[in-house]
Amino acid sequence: MKPQFLKGVRFADLTWAGAGPFCTKIFSDFGADVIKIESATRLDSVRTGGPFKDRRFGVNRSGYFASRNTGKKSVVLDLKSKEGRALAFDIIRRSDVISNNFGPGAMDRIGLDYESVRAVKPDIVYLSMPMYGEDGPRSELLGVGMTISAVTGLMWSTAYRKDDPVGPGTHYPDHAANPYHAAFAVLAALRRRRLTGEGMKIDLSQVESTINFIGSAVVASALEGADRPQIGNASEAMAPHGIYRCAGDDEWCAVAVPGDAQWRALAGLLGLADDGRYATAALRVAACGELDAVVESWLASRTADEAAEQLRAVGIPAARVASARSLVEDDPQLRARSYWQRVEHPELGNSLYASPPYRIDGERVELSRPPLLGEHTSEVLGELVGRSQAEIAELETRGVFK
Questions:
Q1: Which InterPro entries did the record assign (predicted)?
Q2: Domains in the chain with CATH codes
Q3: Overall pTM surpassing 0.85 (yes/no)
């Protein structure tokens, strides 16, 4: 299914790296015309960062870039040149949204600040996604997923223990918090524009966005006036609650016992059915170290899948700790729901992509392939902007397409 719910909406998309392109991909997957304006000399960092098809470098061979840019068009322009900026403005005049996630001042330096853009397109929706937002004492600082995870408290919240901050293993803000918050804001702005005819500027702080995704830690601090302890996979409210080693090579099972009924079921398996020391949640939390050792001993003779199946059969939430490879190759639920899609690409070949996480009327949103670098430059400048092929060839000889 190729939904065209957003057909007719056009982006002049200057985003790069992770968070920005993931935001605009949401629109392109639903039929919006997303024109990715990029540089052939200062390449998008995920074009050069991989992972690469067959582990062979190439600007069109990055799986990360491909996954964040499905369905878009690529135009290469030298925005530092007068001609390049003029062509960018030609695209902007025909667009509904201009988007960027550059550092502070970058759009100003290339003449694409909000006031300059609004002068040629008064009803434009202008999305800006700097790390801290566009004002405040830290607004001039640069950041990436790692540093955003640090300053928002995410690393504090995921620490195993005191004095041992550990991140979530990926640039989490780039993959969840920031792209989706930005997409919601753009949709709201487009709705308002439809009703009023007015555009607006969206100043999204990636730090503020990520704080909203952390969970209860900030709320607890606000209500209690202190930080919660750093306890890794444990819980202050339930026990057992953790990740436990199983039989096999690097096999682990996540187990949570949210209430007394689940504890009674687990106690029957562990041989603790009549042990009053663990009768209440408070007693179990106080003795969580003892219980963890008992649970891990029980799991040691079972594979993670066997353990999870046996635990779930008696009503205890449990799941194997999956690797990325196992999700792709072995997960029966994802396979049954047709989560993984294959898309043909000139350099990546028949490659696997994650679907948008929903079905519409029972069907998956069908992905279109990501663009090659500069693949649509002539098409966009000719068909959208109205430049002749002779003009486009002349611009190319002058080095505007770089």
A1: CoA-transferase_III_domain, CoA-Trfase_fam_III, CoA-Trfase_III_dom3_sf, CoA-Trfase_III_dom_1_sf
A2: 10-213+339-397 (3.40.50.10540), 241-245+252-320 (3.30.1540.10)
A3: yes
